Amino acid sequence: MDYSPLRTALADVVAIPVTPYDADGAVDRAAYRALLRRLLDGGVKAVTPNGNTGEFYALTLEERRLVTELTVEEAAGRAAVLVGVGHDAATAVEAARHARSAGAEMVMVHQPVHPYVAQDGWIDYHRTIAEAVPELGVVPYLRNPLIEGAAVARLGEKCPNVIGVKYAVHDATRFAAVARDAGLDRFVWVAGLAELYAPSYWAVGATGFTSGLVNVAPNVSLNMLGALRAGDYPGAMKVWEQIRRFEDLRAERQSANNVTVVKEALAAMGLCRRDVRAPSKPLPEPRRAEVAAIVEGWSV
């Protein structure tokens, strides 16, 4: 298969949409569709439903399927859809097959949630998923600093549809080594730690980055992408300075408020409710005002 269109889609801002809830705590379909349309109208070309900013682990199986279907319907040729899948291998395969039947082009495989991860076992887990959906592009979400580039390379040799890697280890030097050991050109390397890490990762090989902030301000994320593509690192760092406090708030206490801050900003803009599901928690009142002030300064 020709995976080049999918590779192009990954080399961009990969949006991770939030999952809004209604007053009864159910997925708010209308609000979700509206938020997606806002991303698409803002120029986003790739979206990941059921990502971590979408509260993947807090959604039920039925809700994850619903979000997948809503995303494919709204994207409708305007953006590539890579659906987050994970949990045990059988559940991930089932979700990947559902994504395929819904019309998605790719799946993003969440880091295996298991206390014991062997290099070969990591390969086997992703190979099981990739071989079940050979028509789809597959993107491992790599958060484990112990997974070596050689393991990624072996996975790529076995599975040609593994076309990209979302790398989310807080170490640009480690990323540079893993990408080169795995194959800098074999995979599309997506900086999985969003805008604050995008410049450093871009400098050593990334060609795309994920974003939760893009839910709030698509133009800000795309401005950073444009600067990075042009090799304008001072320009990219101006955006970095603009969003630093917002992203720092998300990163506090091991990213405890990763989703919460994004939803608070959207609530301040009147776009969805601020509700999140446990183990996340809404922000206290003083922080709500701070988030609202930051967003107001962006002129979104």
Automatic annotation (TrEMBL):
<dbReference type="GO" id="GO:0008840">
    <property type="term" value="F:4-hydroxy-tetrahydrodipicolinate synthase activity"/>
</dbReference>
<dbReference type="Pfam" id="PF00701">
    <property type="entry name" value="DHDPS"/>
</dbReference>
<protein>
    <submittedName>
        <fullName>4-hydroxy-tetrahydrodipicolinate synthase</fullName>
        <ecNumber>4.3.3.7</ecNumber>
    </submittedName>
</protein>
<dbReference type="InterPro" id="IPR002220">
    <property type="entry name" value="DapA-like"/>
</dbReference>
<feature type="binding site">
    <location>
        <position position="53"/>
    </location>
    <ligand>
        <name>pyruvate</name>
    </ligand>
</feature>
<keyword id="KW-0456">Lyase</keyword>
<dbReference type="InterPro" id="IPR013785">
    <property type="entry name" value="Aldolase_TIM"/>
</dbReference>
<feature type="active site" description="Proton donor/acceptor">
    <location>
        <position position="141"/>
    </location>
</feature>
<feature type="active site" description="Schiff-base intermediate with substrate">
    <location>
        <position position="166"/>
    </location>
</feature>
<comment type="similarity">
    <text>Belongs to the DapA family.</text>
</comment>
